[in-house]
Each structure stands twice: as C-alpha cells, then as structure tokens.
Amino acid sequence: MADYSKLQNGSDVRGVALAGVPGEPVTLTPEAARAIAGAFVRWLAARTGKATHELTVGVGRDPRLSGPDLAAATRDGILDQGARCGDCGLASTPAMFMSTLLPGFGWDGAVMITASHLPWNRNGMKFFTPAGGLEKEDIRHLLALAGELPPATPRQGRAGDRLFPSPLMDAYAAHLRQLIIDGAGSGPRPLAGFKIAVDAGNGSGGFFPRQVLEPLGADVSASVYLEPDGRFPNHIPNPEDKAAMAAIRKATLEGGCHLGIIFDTDVDRAGAVDRDGSPLSRNRLIGLMGAIVAQEAPGSTVVTDSVTSDELAAFLTGKLGLVHRRFKRGYKNVINEGIRLNQQGTPCLLAIETSGHGAMRENHFLDDGAYLAVKIIIQAARLREKGQTLGDLLRELREPLEAAEHRLPIGAEDFGAYGARVLEALAPYAAAREDWQVAPDNQEGLRVSVPGLSGWFLLRMSLHDPLMPLNIESNRPGGAAAILDQLLPFLEQWEGLALPVMEK
Hints:
This protein is an alpha/beta fold. The protein is built from 13 helices and 22 strands. Helix 1 (30-48) crosses helix 2 (67-80).
C-alpha cells in the first residue's frame, strides 16, 4: 500500500517531479499521478452516482518539463477505471474548471497538471468538478484512496474512443472574447486602436493575446514571453515577483501601450500595469477590482486576505462604500468565505488575495486570472472613451510609506503547536500595552495597530511551512523598523523562533 499523503498541499497535490536539485528527491512520479487520477475517477463515481464508464474527465497541463509524462500518466489512470478522457494538451487551470460547465463540454471532472509559480523541478495536480475545486478533506481522501489501488499494469493496445483530443482552449478563448464584446459594447472589434502588452512568463497564458485580444482588434505586438517554456528562462511567472512586474512595466512603457497584463504559469492569477507604468498588483489590484464591483453592486462585501493595508481598507469602505472583510491567507480560504457570506444572505461579488488570486461571484467564484484581465480590459476600454485611465479610479488609494515582511523560522519539532503558543501569549501582551490596539476581528494570527508610529503589525502562522510571517506597515519614515523594535522584547522570549535581522 503506497503512502501519497505527503503530496498534499492544501487543496492541491504538489511534489518534486524532476531530479536535478540537490536535496530534493523526486516525490511526484508518473506512477503516483496515475494512481491519484484513478482514485479521482472512483471518487467522482461515488459523488455522482455514475458508473466509472459513464464519466468523462479532462486533463490539461502547463508547460513544465515534467508535464507531458505526468499528463500521460494521469490520462492512463483515468482510462484504467474505464472513464472517457479528454486530452486538452497545454491549458490553463481556469479553462480546465470551465470544461465542466462550457456548452459542448460539461465534463464530470477535470485535472490540471501544474505547480503554479514554483520552480521548474516541481509539479502538481488540481482537481475540479462542476461545483468547483476540491477541498482539503477531498484531497486527503483522494490520496488515501490512491494508496489502496492495486499497482497499475502497462497499458496494452489503443484506448479507442475513450481517449480523445479536445479543443478546450479554443472554446474557452471564444468565451472570453464574447465577454469583452458584451462588456465593452462597441461591436465585434471593441479593442480596435487599443494596444495591450501581455507577459505570459513562458507559461500557459500565451493564448490570451493571440486568441482573445487580437481577434477583437487589439494591437498585442508589445507582448513578451508568450512561447511556452518549462524552464521559465526570463523570469518567475508570478505577478508578485518584482522582476516579473518590472518586465511587464518595461513592455508596456516601451511599447507605448494603453495597458499591460501579466499572468502566472497556469493563469489563475493576474496583475496589470497602467499606461503610465503604475503597477496594478497586490493592494492596487484589489482596489481596482473593488472599484469595478462598486459600480455593479454598491455596498456589497469584498473579502481579502489578512495582510491587506489599512489604506486599502479605507479606500474600499470610505471611497467606494463597500464592506471590507479581512480573512485568512490562502486563496481557498478567501474564496470559501465569499461563498459562505452569499449563502448567509450577505452580498459578496469579489473574493481576492494580494497574491493576485481573485474570484467573482458572477464567474462561479473561480480564481481566474484571465477573467480578471477581461474585467480590467473592459473597464479600461470604457474609460478610454472618456479620456481616462484605470489610474483615475485609484487616485484616492494611498499606499503605505513603508512595508516589510519578516519570515521567522520555527525550530521546534511541532511547529504548529509552538506557533499557536506564541500567538496565544502575544494577545494579552499586546492588550496590556496602552500604545497598541489589538484588531477586534482577528481571523488569522494577531493584528495590532501602533498609532504612535502610524502603522500596524500582523504575526501569523504560515499555511504550510514551519514559519511565522510578520508583516509590518507604517506611514512614518523609519516606522516599520521602530514597530519591529517595540515587538522584539516579546519575540526574544521564544527560543524556538529565529529573530529577524534588523535593517539599519
């Protein structure tokens, strides 16, 4: 009986798929992928009440070097159970989810082979049904079931019509084009005269300028890194990465573009750059999407992760008239909180993380970078007709003067319990200080305002690693270091914590 439990990474499967990095042995093998895919089919059969031969499951991948072998093994695992398998080839994660919903598809499930922005030697698997992505408990059950399956035997002969090539990305691109046509309201070529640079980071996003924007009249000639390359030779495909944002900023400015768009590897995250080079990522991306939502549903709630700035909160609530709900880090946590609010009768149209994972109620609460890009492009096209830019929507959004994140390693063996004790002790320590104010609604870790230094700090546990991230922001020169200096006497009491290096 194989043990695949260590491949779980929250609501995904992830592991080392290629040798070559010292100290990182291969853990996600084709054999593992085949077993896990077979378990997914059995899990789907149990959930849907269908026989396995009545199921259809799609498989797509990003350009990682290990992708073809893992995708082939995944297809074999699906066919082992008698299900039909749609081979989507190079695809995006959101498109794989939409394969369960788009007309002409409507498959029972889908598997995406991707590890998002992680290094070249990593890979993973994401799973979808028409109800959305699988949850942590589903993955735990899936991996246990995979370990119970008998070893697979080499496949003999052809799979016949149970394995078929699928033009999913063509259908998904057509879906996105229609959204822009309907939203921009300027005929079949609403982007004529509009110049947009796209940075796909050599991931799966190269389809977007070619199949979505160009047919609508956009000039995409300034786009960069559209060719899939699993080595990711130009920069990490990650909208949070400074080098990646510098690349799309350069492409936008040098190309004289109205807008720049950047995706992560599998296109479930996005960032943007305004025509003047101003980045639209992290707090500014949330502010922009909040401004779009406020036009559609004034007074609705926006859910974000816990590290968003006070300035963003003031913009969302004060300028836009929205309700801001800070929640736990982790895109599934943020999205599930948005779903929960709607279920209890609280309108929430947007759930978005500072990482660029953004999901909208109108789009099945799917974290879809291409869909966010579509919403941004529609807004930019409307503003262009008025002689305005996206930056005009964000004029009143201030940025903190200083922002820092320190990642404090935990040396204790049971790092989760140790971190919990640190946070439990910090709460009364912070409350006893007259110059600190503990946030009233802490969904994750402990957030404390430091009014005397015009700032705040948040200490929390990492989602997966033996770390305690410490976020600090201040609107006073030297304020972030001063806040850290105030917190150090507490941190120094904990021998299991590696203290941050003070930057002078």
